[in-house]
Design a protein that fits this description.
The protein is 32% helix and 24% strand. It is an alpha+beta fold and 71 residues long. The chain has one domain.
């Protein structure tokens, strides 16, 4: 189960078409970085997308980014 104490969301401008990304720190705390240049609704969808990566355990599998994003 994921709680809000397991991750933090940061807004920052990204170049190009990057909507968001998530990182896992050594302390097992997730940081979700969201493109602040996007409309609010798109930002919300991007956060949901990154949360799905966390919930699916994408950081613990051996799949490539291409394989993870194609699921």
């Amino acid at each position: 189960m994921l709680s809000e104490s397991d991750y933090h969301i940061y807004l920052m401008p990204f170049p190009g078409s990057v909507k968001a990304l998530v990182t896992l720190g050594e302390d097992n705390f997730y940081s979700i970085y969201v493109n602040s240049n996007l409309p609010f609704e798109t930002q919300k969808e991007a956060v949901k997308h990154e949360l799905r990566h966390i919930l699916r355990g994408d950081f613990q599998n051996n799949l490539s980014i291409q394989e993870i994003e194609s699921e």
